[in-house]
Structure formats: structure tokens, C-alpha cells
Amino acid sequence: MSAPESSAITDEAVPWRRLDARMLLVKPVTAGFRALPALLVPLILGAQTGNPAWLLIAAAGLVYVATIDWLTTRYRVGPDHVQLKRGLLQRNVLSVPRSRVRSVDTHATVLHRVLGLTVLRIGTGTDDSGFELDAIAAEAVPELRAVLLVPSTPADSDDTEPGSHSDASGAQGDPGTELADWQASWMRYAPLGYTGLVAIGAGMGLFFQSGAAIDRIANSGLAQDAASLGRELGPLVASALAVLAVLAAASAIAIARYILSYSGFTLHDDGHVLRVEHGLLTTRESTLDRRRLRGVSIEEPVLLRLGGGARARAIMTGIGESSGTSALVLPDAPRHRAQEVAAAVVGDPGVMHVALRGHGSAALRRRMFRALAPPVLVLAALAIASLAGAPLPWWAWLAAGLLLAASIGLGLDRYRSLGHATPAGWLVCQSGSLLRSRDMVDAEGIVGWSVRQTYFQRRAGLATLTAATPAGADAYQVIDVPEPWAWDIIAAVTPRMVQSLPRA
């Protein structure tokens, strides 16, 4: 399985390998789900005519597709490239330089696990490299991963830290130190997200697209009884009960998804790679190369933050929001566990707990103005309408008052969440209220800076400082910092760059 070590051997000299023959038992099932619309015709004809030949034709078609896929798919790991060849009538060869391999991820459905197979995907930092092996023997994954995560030559590892080594022997054998282990009590954080509400919204959207289904349900006895009960209870009580029912259903959906996705979550660190494993029915395993680690982010959506929870995400070179590879190192969990895991990942607990510097009264005024502008406009509109003699219900004033109070709280919370710090070798920045994020970025991973000022920021003497990096979100911002501080931050984090940056 390992690639040739001799530099005299070329990629062309390495033999092609075929996928495991057990994929013939998996592919008809997976292909059947993907081709379900095309299979509806023979399935319906077979059911209506009573002729099993149509069902046999559909089954034979799936077996044919799986057999052709197995016969025509090949892969090989050469000294310079990883190549995947597939196709019968139209041959397609995908070649990925080994120096561009950023991660090796695997996932296995229940059927894969029963047959001892897994799906292996190579991440290159692009939106979709398309390099996926379905399916290979599970026992071959550790050795293949160890080979893929080692650059073919030291020069190939263009984004490796100076002085780092490319030993990936930890990808096999001892998994290393366990940094995180999933606890069943973490399920209480699942309803604090938006997963359940999004799922219910999507389901309602599909439901309302079917007019016939709506008519049948609206005329059903259950709907009539519910309408009668609503009239008896009154609109306020009925609305409250409906909201509670939706929240209960959303919580149940969110908990179920959380269990399916993150049950058995573990994070191991062997000093060379971070290995993340999770999943109940479909298991997933991600391997993150420590040589490409550039920091970590602590994310706290507002409801999760109010419940004392947070999640942690590694900042990796070539792995971002659009790379198709997850850098999650801890799902929704207690805040202190997220902080502990983040500190262990970066190897510097002081960075996690460093005190942040606030951005001053000008940043506070800017946040309060933007937060209070909408409710003030609403109150002004109500006052004008009232002076004009328009009848206004009492609840309109109540809603406007509640909106004003919530906006004041939002503005204050956005300011409290705003801050930065520059411990030696790091940039730490925090912002956001509905989604507060604390980003700890290694100074060695920052490749450039930009200082931006809008018209209103210039009037307030503020600026937004952006650190550019090829890792994670690609850019991390210190928002609404006093303008003179921006240059001090650049000098403190990356003194080598400060001489080359023009000052306004």
C-alpha cells in the first residue's frame, strides 16, 4: 500500500490498484438511492402489471452499474501524485499532487461497517477535489492515511512550519492522547441550536407546496377538532400551546440529529495529527495535519452561550468553510470543555484565557446607534400615527417597547463581546452577539494585513483591521478598533511586516 521511497521511481511506474471487490455488495444499494427517480418507472410498471421482469431489470441495472464501476475504477499513490482513474466510455483521470493533500477523511454507513469497508476522501483545500474511494477495506485505511499525510519530499510541503518534520507514523498504531470524549449529558445543548426549527421549516415548505395534501388535512377530523379546541382556549392560549408544540418537536429533532452525528465523538492527538471520530449509524473520521494548524476558534451562538455551551473549530491551512472538510474539534459541549480542548489543540493555555482589550467608547456608541435605530424609527412611526388620530392597539406600543429593550441589550452585548489581545506570537480577536466567535490565530500563519475605514468609521476615529491567512475563514477581523491601535496591533503580532505597510 505504501508509496515507493526511491526518487528514481516515477508515478507511472507504480501499479494501479482496484477497489475492494466487496463494493459490489454496497454499490447497488448506494446507486439505487441516487437513481431512485429513474427506477420509479420500472418499479411502478412491475407493481401495476404484476410482471416481475420489470423489477428484475431494475435490479440487473444496478448490478451492472456497480460491476462497471468496480472494473473501471483504479487508484495509485505515486511518489509525487495520487491518481484516480474511472470511466468506461469516457475515461477520466484525476491527479492530485501529494503536496496538496490537506486531510484524509473517512465515513462508513451501516452497510459499509458490516462488510468491513469505508469511504475515503482526500481533502486538498479546494471546494471539491472529487477524490473519493468508495469503497476500500477498513484495515487498509491507517497505512494509506499515513502515506498520504507525508509529503513526497520536504520541498513539497510548501506550507509547513520551518523546522517541522513530516513523520506521520502516529497515523498508525497508538492513536495518541485523548483530548475529548463525548458525554451523553452534552445532548442538553442540542436544542439550543437552530437545527430543529430549520428542519420543521423545510418540512412545512414541502407540505404547503402540495395543495391536495393541504385540503385533505384541513378537512380531516383531527384538524377540525384542533380548530374547535383553539376557539375554546382563545387565541393567546392556543398560540402559546402551538409555539410550545413546535419548540418541543424542534428539540426532539435537534437531539436526534445530535446523537446520530456526534455520538461517540473522540479527539486524539499523537503530536503529528489530530484525529476526530464521531457518528452513530454512519461513522466519520477526519485526520487534521498538525503542520497545517494555524489556531482555533471558539464559537458561541446566542442560545448556546446562554446555556453555558460552546463549540471549538481548528483553523487549518487549506481547510475552510467551502473546502468540504470539517475542522470541528468539539461539538456543542460545556464552555469550559471547549476552552480546555482549544488550549490543548494550540498547546498554549495562556492564549485561551488571555484578557481581551476593549475598543473604547466610540465603538460602544457605534453599536448602540445601530441597535437603537430600528426601534426608534418604529416608535416615531407609532407616535406620528397616534398624533394623526389613527387608532392603535395597545399591543403595538407593548411590542415597540419590548423591541427597544431587546435592542438595548443587543447593543450592550455586542460591545461586551468585542475585544482583542496580542500575546506573543498570536492574534486573538472576538466579536459577535448572535454568533460570538473568539479566534486565536498563529502569527506565523498571517500573510498580510488590511486596514479599512468606512465614512462613519473615519468620523468616529475607528478602523477594521483584517489579518489575511490561507487557513480557516481566510480572514480574521479586529472590528472597530481605534485607528492608532491598528498599527500597534500589526507591529505586536507581525513585527517583520510593519516596515512594509504604508501608513495613512
Overall description:
The chain contains 16 helices and 20 strands. By secondary structure, the protein is α+β, with helices and mostly antiparallel strands. It starts with 16 loop residues before the first strand and ends in an 11-residue tail after the last helix.
Describe the secondary structure blueprint for this structure:
Layout lengths: L16 E2 L4 H12 L1 H14 L3 H20 L1 E4 L3 E6 L5 E6 L5 E6 L1 H6 L1 E7 L8 E6 L3 H8 L28 E5 L13 H14 L2 H8 L2 H13 L1 H28 L3 E4 L3 E6 L4 E7 L3 E9 H5 L2 E8 L11 E7 H12 L2 H4 L7 H28 L6 H23 L2 E3 L4 E6 L3 E8 L5 E5 L2 H6 L1 E7 L6 E8 H11 L11
Antiparallel strand pairs: 1-2, 2-3, 3-4, 5-6, 5-11, 6-7, 8-9, 9-10, 10-11, 12-13, 12-17, 13-14, 15-16, 16-17, 18-19, 19-20
Helix pairs in contact: 1-3, 2-3, 6-9, 8-9, 13-14
